[in-house]
Design brief:
Blueprint: E1 5-10, E2 14-18, E3 26-29, H1 36-49, E4 54-58, H2 74-82, E5 95-99, E6 106-107, H3 112-124, H4 128-143, H5 151-163, H6 165-172, H7 177-192, E7 220-224, H8 232-249, E8 261-265, H9 269-272, H10 277-289, E9 295-301, H11 309-312, E10 317-320, H12 328-339, H13 349-353, E11 360-364, E12 376-380, H14 392-400, H15 417-429, E13 467-468, E14 471-472, H16 531-556, H17 560-577
Parallel strand pairs: 3-9, 3-10, 4-7, 4-8, 5-6, 5-7, 8-9
Antiparallel strand pairs: 1-2, 1-12, 10-11, 11-12, 13-14
Helix pairs in contact: 3-4, 3-8, 4-5, 4-7, 5-7, 5-15, 16-17
Length: 578
């Protein structure tokens, strides 16, 4: 078993983490100061020794010692003797230091497009409406072929969408300028926290993390997260993005003899705090399916209750350090942690969890058949790297000797949305000085379309008409742009007349001279009746109706015939009186 398994500790029997089941994920939990970091380092070194690259976040700064040879720590030597580890000696593992801020390791960058609107919305703490508008921004940028690489690209795109909100509303729904302003303020806040440096190029290539040194040891990628932890959402979003990139990039490989990559997520509660339901579902999906990509995910947290049940149920390899049951919530956590293990009749797991010392843990791994083993109380094996941080000089030497030295140090700012949008604006705003003649208007070439503001609310380089079927049009895309100077000479050919609206036009014959009388002109050939004439006609029509009805009754009697006769007689008399 020692040829394909990591020795984790010893109880009544040795406890091994089988490499072929290492991609079934795991959990390392326990209160502060109980030995979680040392356990993490021991397991990470075990993966590296078997040629499996590892990524882990150094929250407290004491994991950097893995790059230096240990073996001299008195407690580590004592534990090695206690566990009868033959030939225990220190070893410096191949380490690659990373830092989002570029201070304690190689810079890590990615593009805004790769992060996507969902993670960006969580990073900016947007609500559902604001996230919807952000989705529109990404959609429009994609349709227009505008690259969103860094902060200024996203800010420029947001400004463009705000300026063209009325045009976008008909296709994508309501786009409020107030919402755009809220997103811009959230970007400003993130920029002040140092988040701008995370977006840009050259973007991180996952292959640079998934590598081995010439001796076959897997690289241990250590992220300097002590400063990053001051921005918890940025920390959680970055790690979730990295996990998603692994899921989307790596091919399906099924079950391997050992994983291709192992991901340790320290302070895991930050990933799930205030996470929307859609994001939690995404995390659960990634954790469940990334196993087939050959990736193992291990969460490190103080309390098992920090992990949602849907994710906790996917974690097959467990290491539980001591928990302190001082409050009812702590007692519940102890009970939950004990119930997640397979029962061991030799001891009560709930009671033992509160009695564990530093460097002790309850462990349960999958056996050769993939079945969880009964929980065991064991002493954790000591790491071979240094327990504690590396010095600044030692870190600098490791970074300088890294195979990635210089690759990510210089920022690359290629043409993207910001340059294209500002280029379009400046191209339209260029004018001629008073002493210069303006060029004659010409039809823009196909390539010049790139300098326009796209299909939504765009203005051609030529002077637009003052009005159109959708109302008045401005002479420039922005209100601050100066009007274009008049052309020095008229065009060679007159422009074709604009089509007239399809409305009936009045006759164009010469009108008759206006009458000199002060009496208002009649609207028809017949003179209007006076008030007396109108009243006499109305009385006559009423009398006619009564006479006709009575006469019809006398001649035709009652019934249908009388009604018809009355109608005929009334019509005749009415014609006479008209």
């Amino acid at each position: 078993m020692t040829d394909n398994a990591i020795f984790v500790g010893e109880s009544d029997a040795d406890q091994y983490l089988l490499l072929k089941y290492a991609n079934r994920h795991g959990l390392i939990a326990g209160a502060t100061g109980t030995g979680k970091t040392v356990t993490l380092q021991t397991i990470a070194e075990g993966f590296s020794a078997f040629g499996v690259p590892v990524f882990m976040a150094d929250v407290k700064g004491d994991l950097s010692g893995v790059s230096q040879a240990g073996g001299t720590n008195p407690k580590a030597v004592e534990r090695a003797q206690q566990l009868k580890i033959e030939g225990y000696a220190g070893h410096a593992f191949p380490t690659i230091f990373w830092d989002l801020f570029g201070e304690k390791g190689h810079p890590i960058r990615t593009t805004v497009s790769e992060v996507g609107p969902v993670l960006m919305a969580r990073l900016l703490q947007l609500n559902d409406t604001q996230e919807g508008v952000l989705n529109i921004v990404f959609k429009v940028a994609d349709e227009q072929g505008l690259l969103l690489l860094d902060f200024k690209d996203l800010q420029a795109m947001l400004q463009w969408v705000a300026e063209n909100a009325s045009s976008l509303t008909t296709e994508f729904g309501n786009v409020s300028k107030q919402t755009i302003g809220t997103i811009q303020r959230a970007l400003l806040t993130l920029d002040q926290q140092g988040g701008e440096g995370f977006f840009g190029e050259p973007a991180l290539a996952l292959a640079d993390m998934m590598r081995c040194d010439p001796s076959g040891y897997g690289a241990i990628n250590v992220l300097a997260a002590d400063r990053l932890m001051q921005s918890p959402r940025l920390y959680a979003t970055f790690l979730l993005w990295l996990l998603s990139e692994l899921f989307e990039t790596l091919p399906e490989v099924g079950d391997l003899d050992k994983p291709k990559f192992v991901f340790f997520f320290d302070e895991a509660h930050l990933l799930f705090d205030d996470a929307p339901k859609a994001l939690l579902s995404r995390i659960e999906q990634v954790v469940r399916l990334i196993r087939s990509k050959g990736v193992g995910v291990y969460f490190i947290s103080q309390n098992p209750l920090d992990i949602p049940e849907t994710v906790l149920g996917q974690l097959a390899n467990r290491v539980q350090h001591a928990l302190r049951a001082f409050t009812p919530k702590d007692q519940k956590a102890v009970k939950v942690a004990a119930e997640t293990f397979r029962l061991n009749k030799k001891f009560d797991a709930a009671t033992t969890i509160t009695e564990l010392g530093v460097g002790e843990a309850l462990v349960s791994f999958l056996d050769a058949k993939g079945v969880p083993e009964p929980v065991e109380r064991c002493f954790i094996a000591p790491p071979r790297g240094r327990i504690g941080p590396a010095t600044d000089a030692e870190r600098a030497a490791v970074i300088a000797a890294s195979p990635l030295a210089g690759k990510y140090d210089k920022v690359v700012d290629r043409t993207s949305a910001y340059e294209v949008l500002t280029g379009r604006v400046s191209a339209g705003a260029q004018g001629t000085s008073p002493g210069e003649a303006a060029p004659a208007p010409s039809t823009p070439a196909s390539g010049e379309a790139l300098r326009r503001r796209g299909q939504y609310g765009s203005v051609p380089p030529t002077a637009p008409a003052s009005s159109g079927p959708w109302g008045p049009r401005t002479s420039s895309p922005t209100s601050t742009q100066a009007p274009a100077p008049p052309p020095a000479a008229p065009p060679a050919e007159p422009a074709s007349p604009r089509p007239e609206p399809r409305l009936k036009k009045a006759q164009t014959t010469d009108p008759a001279p206006e009458p000199t009388s002060s009496r208002p002109r009649s609207t028809g050939g017949r003179q209007p009746d006076s008030i007396g004439v109108t009243m006499a006609k109305a009385a006559g029509r009423s009398i006619t109706t009564v006479v006709a009805r009575e006469a019809a009754k006398a001649v035709f009697g009652k019934g249908k015939g009388a009604s018809i006769g009355a109608s005929v007689l009334r019509g005749v008399l009415g014609s006479i009186l008209k």
